Amino acid sequence: MKACLVLSVLGAAIAPAFASVVPRQAKGKLPPVTVKGNAFFAGDERFYVRGVAYQPGGAADAADPLLDLEGLKRDVANFKLLGINTIRIYTIDNSKNHDEGMKLLDDAGIYLALDANTPKYSLNRENEKTLHRSYNDVYLKSIFATIDAFAEYNNLLLFFSGNEVINERNNTNAAPYIKAVTRDMKQYISNRHSRTIPVGYSAADVAENIEEQALYFNCGTDDERSDFFAFNDYSWCDPSSFTESGWDQKVKTYEDYSKPIFLSEFGCITNTREWGEIAALYSQNMTSVYSGGLVYEYTVEPNGFGLVEVGNDGNIKPNKDFERLAKAYKATANPRGDGGYKKSGSASECPKESKEWEVKDDSLPAMPKAAQKFMDEGAGTGPGLAGDGSHFAGEPSESTATPGSGSPTRTPTPGSGSVAGNGNGGGEGAASSLDVPVRFLGMIAASALFGAVLLF
Q: CA–CA separation, 198 vs 158, rounded Å?
């Protein structure tokens, strides 16, 4: 009788906790992509990134292309002609709703690889002081708001925690801050959302330290390790080959890497782009290590890259690069089966300090105290593109993190399409699920049991 009474008290205490969690349904028909070993998977099928960088107007314009629905509809038609499955966007407005734009992509079978930073909300690598100052709660609020704005969409492929922050041989001191942001993003996703979303870094291919970057972002405790490593590689300049470009040696360099690797930008313009690298990238020479890549870039910008010209009237005209790329993609199928991926692996050994790697040890800055509340309360509405910026705002980190301190207090479901957290509302797609933080239920249960004991 007493046991029944205790269980009744416990049940009555926990039930409201579940009732207060509003289940959300994921948006989209595409299956969420997850990480298994050193590869991406969409369900049980190996997923290879076949895509383009998409930021019409370039970085200087800093507009959100997902909000220009007419332009997006126009471009989605071209994405289909190219035969791609992914686009990368560098800048979005995290104060806006993206349901329509993401649905256009989802209906076309296209995933989004999204940079979480914007020009005004990013790490300032000018020097050590600006790096430390820019890693603050206002910055993280924007990063977390971007996560909230997109986590519901099944066709959100992944988040980049940074892009080419380290772009010289002598500014590797930014590495601990990039890694701290990756850790914070992973923890926020686990605490606030109910599916695992891959988070990693897009590196510049700096010859003196690119291997150190790959090792560093995959070393240490699990909470701080990236879910993938990507880098911008322009070393294949046609006419070239798998061996002449040096890509064969890069495969050997990363053959024991335990996380997915892909090219976050590629497409040298030194000579005519014949896109010979497409056949190599999706061949079994590379797929045991690489998971595809993103061509740079969709629209022709002042830098000379681009696949389509945009006229003053908004109409676009594909150029010869576009035609050759579409032909190369059409002629290149993904390998059958799993592509020779590695099902398991271990963390890398952290690189030692050197002239080319100015990182003294494995320590990371702790999350700024003022940002810790976001883990429980959510980030709220993002500042968008009109915000004041974060470089010299808020409160920076005040201490060094304890290894493992970024571990989540709840575990999301890998590949689950549902989201419980701070999103923009319901949608269509996978069935919803409930996910209550374990520590929260533990506290309720303990309190209920203590009360039950007092009854006797």
A: 5
